[in-house]
Amino acid sequence: MRDVRDETTELLEKIGVPAAQFNSGDLSVTSPITGEVIAEVHTQGDVDAAVARARDAFLKWRSVPAPRRGEFVRLLGEELRASKAELGRLVTLEAGKVTSEGLGEVQEMIDICDFAVGLSRQLYGLTIASERAGHRMMESWHPAGVVGIISAFNFPVAVWSWNAALALVCGNAVVWKPSEKTPLTALACNAIFERAAKKFGDVPDGLHAVLIGAREIGEKLVDHKDVPVLSATGSTRMGREVGPRLAARFARPILELGGNNAAIVCPTADLDLTLRGVLFSATGTAGQRCTTMRRLFLHDSLYDDFMPKLIAAYSSVPIGDPREEKTLIGPLIDAGSFENMQYALERARSQGGKVHGGERFETGASGAYYARPALAEMPAHEGIVREETFAPILYVMRYSDLDEAIALQNDVGAGLSSSIFTMNMREAEQFLSAAGSDCGIANVNIGTSGAEIGGAFGGEKETGGGRESGSDAWKAYMRRATNTINYSADLPLAQGVTFEV
Ligand code: NAD
Fold this sequence. Notes:
There is one protein chain. Helices cover about 40% and strands about 20% of the residues. It is an alpha/beta fold. The chain folds into two domains: about 5-255 and about 465-480, Aldehyde Dehydrogenase, Chain A, domain 1 (3-Layer(aba) Sandwich), CATH 3.40.605; about 260-445, Aldehyde Dehydrogenase, Chain A, domain 2 (3-Layer(aba) Sandwich), CATH 3.40.309.10. The protein has a seven-stranded mixed beta sheet with strand order 12-15-16-11-10-18-19, sandwiched between helices. A five-stranded parallel beta sheet has the order 7-6-5-8-9, sandwiched between helices. The longest helix is centred in the N-terminal third of the chain and has 21 residues, at about 100-120. It starts with a helix and ends in a 15-residue tail after the last strand. The site of nicotinamide-adenine-dinucleotide (NAD) has 29 residues, from helix 8 and helix 9. Nicotinamide-adenine-dinucleotide (NAD) binds near residues 155, 177, 180, 218 and 259. Homotetramer. Keywords: NAD, Oxidoreductase.
């Protein structure tokens, strides 16, 4: 395998990131593959200057017709296509994703650009029947202003694109604070943005900015009076701090926080398909997806048949260097993540859980943290089972009654993703009904992870309530005006009110 630092440098140069941006800076970037330092980037604390420039750019961009803004996002998608291999590889080197997932993340960026281009010729408002003669009512959607984006390490580039592609076609400027663990891929996205801007020709200066740094920079963005919409993706802990601060200044939050996602496996489930679905959702991305399956409710009638198969499948998933073709589980992001995993497994054992796997997987790189995915057979749905640990741990429990299983699946703080595996139409429909899963994502015969961009993405309760990506998520990036136009010579008042002097 090539030296990680050399390859990182080569990729950044190929994408067009100036060397000065990733050499001799004050923030060291490590690759989770080996634990080695692969670059030193410069933190940028001047949030006020970036927001001021973005605000000026917004004042111009908002008057560019939406389909023309869409043309810019089309070019951005083209540039992403051209750099897919390099950016995908950089995601692998910086975030530790296996090759197909690194590339898949960039594909998701391309998909949202395509989606946003279509939207740029829509952004529909309604025409509403007026109760007054000679009047017309309608609603118009206008750009909101500067959109702040705070993102997490585990989707270092896709989350930016979900927000940025929509924000840009909607006529906004973007200021992005990526995770301090993954600044290189952010610098790469910025370089790709600049290439698209050059091709487009008249993108106002400052329309997009990247601010590298830790939470203090995020806090400044959260508190900035000229950022009317802020999209924050990360832990529920982060959302608990960010949410009230945004509320205090009446800014619009788009919060995409933690998940504690569950699947219910019913007696009629296709168990081969279920096994594959569970395996990908629970162990893929080394358990570091917000939608990772973390709890599994197995019906009593199949528990003893399914569990040994799941244990066997777990022990056969290839773990190791994510650059290798055959690897399906790469490293955890850092030592802290491995420690959190071990702490959670300790708690599971102390609660009477029977743990399979979960040990450190040695690759010879002492600064890297690979772990065997863990299954924890739990006697009860309590304690650690009800918390999100951002690592590959799946808590497995028995159930006998579907109502009870649905109640347990809903009985956690988070409300992001959920699944049912069944061939029984009544069970599937009950799970999807108003009395079923309380999550933002509810699937049938598919795992909890691996969403497509066409649907609105996000979750309820402690997941924050935000929606990004498809469906009508674009509305969060615009302000709505209701317009009433009187084309008569009279001035009738609504609700029959009279006001004559
Ligand atoms: P994190 O909360 O530690 O950090 C996320 C981002 O928030 C980082 O950029 C960080 O610098 C910033 N931040 C932290 N505290 C802040 C504060 N007080 N003010 C402003 N910014 C602050 O999360 P992480 O470890 O990078 O990512 C893992 C978490 O993200 C998991 O909980 C996962 O479920 C969640 N996640 C959610 C989604 C979703 O769409 N719901 C997607 C990806 C990840």
